[in-house]
Every structure is written in C-alpha cells, then in structure tokens.
C-alpha cells in the first residue's frame, strides 16, 4: 500500500450504483492493472488524490439500512463533491419498479429514483458500460422495461450534472482508471468528450484504423467463415464504424482482444449496440444505421 | 415474540437482493425468496438471429458469462445438428475457458464476497470504506491469523484477475469471452498459447493448494458451528458439465442426504408458477415447452423467479451438488479430497450440507478443476481444427445443459423461419432461490434459512452467511414472512 508524497490528500467520495446490468463492468474494473483494484480502493491513485469507495454493492462489507443511509449522507454532506458511477441501465417502466437497489422508509428505492437524486448533487456522473451510457442490451427491442441511459434520464429530469460515458460491454478497466486520472491530474474540464459523451482519449479512433487485420482488408483477403485468416468484415465485424482503442490497448493486461481471438468486433461501445449491430455475424453497413 | 428482520440490499452477491426474516423466540420461522430486477432477456431474444443468443446471453451475468456462452453454444449446436461434429480441440478449449472462469468465480466468492463475514478486514486495515459499515460482534479470528487472511484477500484480487487473463489466452477477453461460439471456438491452440496458459495456471494452482484451501479449513475450524447451520433441503442435483472428448468431466446425478444416487433425466424438470408473477396456465411444464406470460396482479405471487423442481422435489445446485455426485459415483480424485477434508475437520459427510460445507466443496472443486485443466492442455492438437462451418437452419429445437460456478445452467431454444421463436434460461440461482411451488414446498435457500437461530437481530450474521454460501448470482430477493401482515404486498409490481 504505497503512499505518494506527503501533502493534503484530496478525497473523491464515490457512490457506485448498479442498475439493470450484469455486474460485468464491476468485474472488469476488478481486472485493472497499474493501478490495480487494491490501489484504486486503498491508495492515492494520483499522489494527493484518493478515491473513497463509499458505496459499491459488490464489494462493500455493509448491507441493509446502514448502507442506504450512506447514500443519503453522501448526497447531503458531500453535495457537489462526490463522483456518481452508474453501472447498468435505468428501468423506467412502471415508475421504475422493475429495479430497486434497496429499501428506504418501507418502500423500494428504485434505480431511477436513486440515480436522479444522487445525480442531481454529484460533481460528475460516470456512466460505466454501454447499458448505463445508452441503454445497451436491456434496452434492446422491444425494451420490455423501458431502460434508458443516464444522460437521457438526466435530460428528461432537467439534471445538468456532467455525464461522462464510458461505454463497452463491459467497460475496459483502463477507460475508467484513465478517466479518473484525467479528473485528478487536470480537472473535469480536461475531459474532452466526443459527440456521444465519450472521452476522445479512449474512443477517438476507429477499430478499423488500427486493426492488425487492416492489411487483409486493403488487399481484399476476407475470412469466409469463423476460424479463417483474413479480415472479418464479411463475418459481420463492426470495426469500421466502432470507435475504441481496443486494437492498441488490448484486454486483460494486454493478453488479447476480440479480433485477435478470431472474432468479429460487436461494436459494443456504440449507442446503437445491440440492435444496430445485429445480426452480429452479418454485414451491417454504416448506411444501415441511418 | 415475533420480530421481522429486514436486510435490503443484501450486498456482496451478483445482483440485487433482500432478506426479510420472521424470527420467533430467536428462531427463523418462515422464508420467502423473490426476484426483484427484471430485464426480460427471453423477450429481447425473440426474433433475433439464433447465433446472436450466444453473444447476448453471456450478458445475463458478468460473473459467470462463460457458463452462458457454453450453455448457449451447446443449445445452438443441438438446434443446428452440430453436437456430434464439434472438434476435440473445441471441446477442450471450451472446457479450459469455462474452467478458468470457475476458478476466478470461486476465488472471488470466497475472499471478496463471503470472507468479510468471517475475517475482520477493518481490524487489520482500519475503519475505512469499503470495509465499514458492517455487522459487528461475531469476528472470531484476530491478531496475526486475521492479518494474514486480510493479506490473502488482497492477494486473491490479483489471482482472480490472473484467472481472467489466463482465460483470455483462448477466450479473447473477459468478462464476455468471444471465442466460445456455435460449432466450436474461434481461437487456435498454438504451442505458444498452450505453454502460456499452462504457466498462468500453475501460479493459480499454487494459490488454490497453498492458500485458498488452507484458509477455508482455518475459517471452518474457527466457525465450526457453521458446519451444522443452514442444512437446506438435503437433496442435490447436477446436470454434469465440461464436455471433454471422452465425455462429461462432472457426472450428472441426483443425490439424497443419505447418499443415494438417481440418474438425472432432463424431462423430469418442471417449473411451478403458483407463487410467481406468471399466468398459472403455464405451471408444471418442462422448460422446452416453457411459457413466460407475466401476470402482475396475482395475489399470492411474490417472485419473478419460477420454481424449478425435479420430479416435483426441491433440490439444491452448486459445487456441493457436483462434489457429492462425483463422490457417490466413486470419482477417485473427488473421493480422496473430500475424505481428506472431512478427516481434517473431524466430521462426517452430513456436515457437507451446511454453510461451511458449501464453501469447502467450492474450494475442493477449484482444485479438481485446476488440476484437470493442466491435463486438458496436454491433449490439445495444435494443427487440428477448432470449429465446424455451420448455417442457421429454417427450423429447429435445442437444449444446452451445463454447469456454472454456482450450479447447473440450462438454455432451451426453438427456431422458426431462421429466427429465435422461443428462448428459455433456467439459472442455478433460480433453483436455489426459488419461491414456494404448487405444493407449497419452500425453495432451497428458504429451507436453509428456516429453523436458524439468530443470536443478535441487529447483527444477523447467520442469515447473510447462509444466503452467501449459496453464491447467489441473479438479481434476486429473499424474503421471510411477517406473521402479522401480508408480505406479498411488499413486492408490488417488482
């Protein structure tokens, strides 16, 4: 547990709420390397700056009423100073009752209600994963529970807190730790977002631009079935309109990533995922999305 | 005097969970279990390309996506007529991918989800988030032993991450691997990858043998009353799983408390709906004909989970079921490990049906899988194929039955006009955390909670230790009846 240079530590309280999702983004962040998850939880990620994970249902020791109180205390006592992380989409059908995060005052505290309350008073909201950013699979046709992303919910409720989208199914841990680093080093204003709310630092280039199979595409060498050599375009690869740095960064400590393992890019970081990327193994062109 | 204990949310599980306990004279009287987050995956899958189910159903769960990848691939293989054509390499790589995730899931479950109920992390690290707030009053390990267990909590964070890195050698990425697909796998077993995988595995095996299993035994000795708490329904079931070229590694079976074995037959699975928010007309059906017609105004219903039953009986799924099934079928490796463990703890096989019996079974299973994976690597054939070409048929039906870290998992599908007409998933937690059935028999977790003595109702360690030992992995909810009011009113639409 390494400490940085002695100086007054700036605390960043974090409330991490889980909505209609699969916990995969929490698991992905547990896979972080440099900093590792134990550094994120216990150390100063950037010297002088410390994340204080006050609420995360997957790892926190507490439960029941005591942790529901943590939410209220954070909202009132750390007003404007805490980071709200939302994982999973927000079900809004039937007044949000398709998903609750606990009980408050004898009633369900719905995901919709807690994201709105905590969102209104947060320093920034980080929508982690495609579900939280844009709705993702739970919002896939016919969207049975009317799931929405954080920004859409905020816009409807007139909440003007900045939303940083970190889509991906799941998010890459570096995209989270990297965004936190930008906020700590350089401040919120330094987080440059693209037109769908993603940091350009991670989502600024097409998969296709940096793909190791790009030469195959340029020379017209296409895989005809899974397992073949060659560009995966004809097998439904969506890398030509998907913006992420997977080819350079790779996944799981740089071991591999989708296309390296012979599988077409699903386009999981795009707002159109999954419906605009389906059928997954068929060619869907940029024009089809319009 | 009756008193209701309510724990909502119950944390350190996958999903959203609550417990509500009616305690009378310090003993839990009645239990209810209910699902509270509804996403409607089966509805979202209708009308899509059948192959896409393999990508999408992994996203049911980020803790055990590889199990859904495996179940859906088997289901689609079946519907496409590929089951007997899957190359040996593909079977082995699918098993290695699945096994790698069992290891990360079991290690995560013991150290990061369950251990904070037994190990005093705040005592070693300080009263900081996320280790406080918490229940107080029953941490029985202190000093150097406690500090060492907390160090292992931190070390286990690295090891479970390395399990996922190992998985990615063949799986491409985790969570949500890309390699397990209908017809086989997409990644090839080149010699460099085999060796790379092996040495990642060796580090993990070292941790399982020398840290994980000894820690579970230490905790079991320190909390030995939990070898007698949370017995449950006394009947276990496993579909069997890990399809190797020679057959299933884990043997299917249904075993009773007195270790009597019956063969498992999938046609004996039915789903009751009496206490679930679905139309009763679908009750009692096999999942291949399953019907999911929501009916939210059903008076007695209290869950979105159906009640899966085997021959009308309540059964428990999970590592305990797999270890017991292998044990009674005389799997030499399992028998040796289980007998050695029981000897070290000084208990008989009946003690396996308990909170710590479940943790111990999980730890032994990690060793059995990890050791076997080293053998599976050695029979890969680098030059041979990993996938068979396939096409979506116009019509078809399929079933994919396999194992997830927390119990047996089944996918069922019907294809019409080259699209998914019906898709049904039964997760292990649906069995374990099911509500009462048509005959009013409580589900497995409900039964494990009932009869439990709760020492301190403000710090009900017993309840959370029992529920977590099942490793619930579903947005689900466990409720217990309040003697004086109708608890079903609590659930409203959810």
Plain-language structure description:
The complex is a heterodimer of chains A (290) and B (494). Helix content of chain A is 28%, strand content 16%. Chain A is of the alpha/beta class and 290 residues long. In chain A, a hairpin with a 2-residue loop joins β2 and β3. Chain A is globular. With 494 residues, chain B is α+β, with helices and mostly antiparallel strands. Chain B has one domain: Cytochrome-c3 Hydrogenase, chain B, CATH 1.10.645.10. In chain B, 38% of the residues lie in helices and 17% in strands. A three-stranded antiparallel β-sheet of chain B has the order 1-2-3. A three-stranded antiparallel β-sheet of chain B has the order 7-10-11, covered by helices on one side.
Please name the defining characteristics of this protein:
heterodimer, A: 290 residues, alpha/beta, Rossmann fold, Cytochrome-c3 Hydrogenase, Chain A, domain 2, six-stranded mixed β-sheet, two-stranded antiparallel sheet, 11 helices, 10 strands, 16% strand, disordered N terminus, B: 494 residues, alpha+beta, Cytochrome-c3 Hydrogenase, chain B, three-stranded antiparallel β-sheet, 13 helices, 17 strands, 38% helix, 17% strand, globular, disordered C terminus
């Amino acid at each position: 547990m390494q400490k940085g240079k002695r100086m007054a530590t700036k605390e960043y309280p974090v409330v991490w709420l889980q909505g209609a999702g699969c916990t995969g983004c929490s698991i992905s962040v547990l896979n972080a390397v440099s900093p590792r998850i134990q550094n994120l939880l216990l150390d100063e990620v950037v010297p002088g700056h410390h994340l204080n994970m006050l609420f995360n249902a997957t790892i926190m020791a507490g439960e029941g009423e005591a942790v529901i109180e943590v939410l209220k205390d954070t909202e009132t006592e750390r007003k404007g100073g805490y980071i709200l992380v939302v994982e999973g989409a927000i079900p809004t059908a039937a007044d949000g009752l398709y998903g609750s995060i606990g009980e408050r005052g004898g009633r369900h505290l719905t995901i919709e209600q807690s994201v709105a309350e905590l969102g209104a008073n947060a320093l920034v909201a980080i929508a982690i994963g495609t579900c939280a950013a844009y709705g993702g699979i739970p919002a896939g046709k016919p969207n049975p529970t009317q799931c929405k992303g954080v920004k859409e919910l905020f816009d409807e409720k007139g909440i003007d807190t900045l939303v940083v989208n970190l889509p991906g199914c799941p998010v890459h841990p570096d995209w989270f730790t990297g965004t936190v680093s930008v906020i700590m080093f350089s401040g919120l204003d330094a987080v440059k977002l693209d037109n769908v709310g993603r940091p350009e630092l991670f989502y600024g280039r097409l998969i296709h631009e940096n793909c190791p199979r790009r030469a195959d595409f340029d020379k017209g060498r296409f895989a005809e079935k899974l397992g073949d050599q060659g560009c995966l375009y004809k097998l439904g690869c969506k890398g030509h309109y998907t913006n992420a740095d997977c080819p350079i960064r790779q996944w799981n400590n740089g071991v591999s990533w989708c296309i390296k393992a012979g599988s077409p890019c699903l386009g999981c970081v795009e707002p159109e995922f999954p419906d605009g990327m389906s059928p997954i193994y068929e060619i869907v062109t940029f024009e089809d999305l319009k | 005097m009756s008193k209701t204990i309510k724990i909502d949310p119950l944390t350190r599980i996958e999903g959203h969970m609550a417990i509500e306990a009616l305690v009378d004279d310090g003993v839990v009287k009645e239990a209810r279990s209910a699902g509270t987050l509804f996403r409607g995956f089966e509805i979202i899958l209708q009308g899509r390309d059948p192959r896409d189910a393999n990508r999408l159903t992994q996203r049911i769960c980020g803790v055990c996506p590889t199990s859904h990848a495996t179940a859906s691939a088997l289901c689609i293989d079946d519907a496409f007529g590929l089951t007997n054509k899957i190359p040996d390499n593909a079977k082995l790589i699918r098993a290695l991918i699945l096994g790698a995730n069992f290891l990360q899931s079991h290690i995560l479950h013991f150290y990061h989800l369950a251990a904070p109920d037994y190990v005093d992390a705040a005592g070693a690290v300080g009263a900081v988030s996320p280790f406080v707030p918490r229940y107080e009053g029953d941490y029985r390990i202190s000093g150097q032993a406690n500090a060492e267990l907390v160090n292992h909590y931190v070390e286990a964070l690295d090891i479970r991450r390395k399990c996922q890195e190992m998985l990615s050698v063949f799986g491409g990425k985790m969570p949500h691997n890309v390699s397990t697909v209908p017809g086989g796998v997409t990644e090839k077993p080149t010699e460099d990858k085999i060796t790379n995988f092996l040495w990642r595995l060796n580090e993990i095996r070292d941790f399982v043998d020398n840290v994980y299993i000894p820690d579970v035994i230490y905790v079991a000795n320190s909390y030995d009353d939990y070898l007698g708490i949370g017995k449950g329904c006394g009947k276990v079931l496993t579909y069997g799983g890990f399809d190797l070229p020679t057959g299933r590694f884990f043997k299917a079976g249904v075993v009773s408390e007195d270790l009597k074995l019956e063969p498992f037959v999938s046609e004996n699975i039915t789903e009751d709906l009496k206490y679930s928010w679905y139309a009763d007309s679908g009750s009692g059906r096999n999942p291949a004909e399953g019907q999911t017609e929501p009916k939210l105004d059903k008076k007695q219903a209290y869950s979105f989970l159906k009640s899966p039953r085997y021959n009308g009986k309540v059964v428990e799924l999970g590592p305990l079921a797999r270890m017991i099934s292998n044990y009674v079928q005389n799997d030499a490796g399992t028998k040796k490990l289980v007998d050695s463990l029981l000897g070290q703890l000084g208990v008989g096989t009946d003690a396996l049906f308990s909170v710590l019996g479940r943790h111990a079974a999980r730890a032994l299973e990690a060793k059995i899988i990890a050791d076997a994976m080293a053998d599976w690597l050695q029979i890969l054939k680098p030059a041979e194929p990993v996938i068979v070409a396939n096409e979506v048929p116009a019509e078809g039906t399929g079933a994919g039955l396999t194992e997830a870290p927390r119990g047996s998992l089944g996918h069922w599908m019907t294809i019409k006009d080259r699209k998914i007409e019906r898709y049904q998933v039964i997760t292990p937690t649906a069995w374990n955390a099911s509500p009462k059935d048509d005959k009013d028999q409580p589900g497995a977790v409900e039964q494990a909670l009932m009869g439990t003595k709760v020492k301190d109702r403000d710090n009900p360690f017993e309840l959370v230790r029992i529920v977590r030992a099942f490793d619930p992995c579903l947005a689900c909810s466990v409720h217990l009846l309040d003697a004086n009011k109708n608890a079903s009113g609590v659930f409203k639409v959810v």
